[in-house]
Amino acid sequence: MVSKKFMVSLYDFGLVGLGVMGRNFILNVADHQFSAFGLDTDPVKVSDLKLEGAGKKIDGTTDKLVFIQNLSRPRKIMLLVPAGGPVDSVIYELLPHLEPGDLLIDGGNSHFSDTNRRFDQLAEKEIHFMGAGVSGGSKGARFGPSIMPGGNEASYKIIQPIFEAVSAKVNNEPCVDFMGHGSAGNYVKMIHNGIEYGLMQLIGESYHIMKQGLGLNNFELQKVYSKWNEGDLQSFLIEITAGIFSVQDDLGSGELVDKILDKAKQKGTGKWTSQNAMDMGMPIPTIDAAVAMRQISASKEIRTEVSQKYKSTERESGIVIDTLDVEKAFYFAFMITYAQGMSQLGVASSEYHYDLNLERIAKIWRGGCIIRSRFLEDMRVAFSKNSELPTLLLDPVIIEKIKETVMSARKVVQFSVGNGIPSMALANTLNYFDAFSSSNLPLNLIQAQRDYFGSHTYERNDREGVFHSEWK
Ligand code: 6PG
Question: In this model, does residue 386 exceed pLDDT 60?
Answer without folding.
Answer: yes
